[in-house]
Amino acid sequence: MKSVGIFIVCVGLLCSCASSTQLSLYQKLDGKAGIGRIIDSFIYQIGNDEQIIHYFEHSNIAYFRQGFITHMCMLVEGPCTYDGDSMVAIHTGMHITEKDFNHVVDLLINAMNEQNISHSLQNDILSRMAPLRGEIIKM
């Protein structure tokens, strides 16, 4: 009987340990390396898209890449601090239409699909990015 009691206590402890070690979104994405792969796929999508490429024709792609990785890292609660320009400052004067904005979101989704990011994780990422929409369209 004492062995059964010890067994139940051990199972209870194991269950509580398992439930308290859930991975963060940052960890589920494989950290900064995983975010980098998503952004690299996204940049490739942009580079091959005639509708969107003109927005980036004068961009420093390496700077854009690093800034977006850091920004996404921060959004998914990774250990990064984004201290770059605000979304308003970056997008002012670009006159991004709602159609083009939605198309860029589609390209990001394509990039996440290419990197085998689950739809639930994609939805989590997109919901964290959604509040930025108003700071980007028609600035």
Number of strands: 0
Question: Count of helices?
Answer: 8
The main β sheet shows up as: none
Overall, the morphology is globular
The structural class is mainly alpha
User: What is the CA-based Rg, rounded?
Assistant: 20 Å
Average pLDDT metric: 88
What is the helix fraction of residues, given as a range? 55-70%
Residue windows where pLDDT falls under 50 for at least 5 positions: none
Output the helix-strand order: HHHHHHHH
Percent of sequence in beta strands: under 5%
| End-to-end CA span | 72 Å
InterPro entries: Globin-like_sf, Globin/Proto, Hemoglobin_trunc
Protein name: Group 1 truncated hemoglobin
Keywords: Heme, Iron, Metal-binding, Transport
What report would you give on this structure?
By secondary structure, the protein is an all-alpha fold. The chain has 8 helices and no strands. It has helices spanning 2-20, 25-28, 31-47, 61-75, 87-91, 98-114, 119-129, 133-136. It is globular, with a radius of gyration of 20 Å.
Task: Summarize, please.
This protein has 139 residues and is mainly alpha-helical.
Question: Which descriptors would you attach to this protein?
Answer:
single chain, mainly alpha, 8 helices, 0% strand, Globin-like_sf, Group 1 truncated hemoglobin, metal-binding
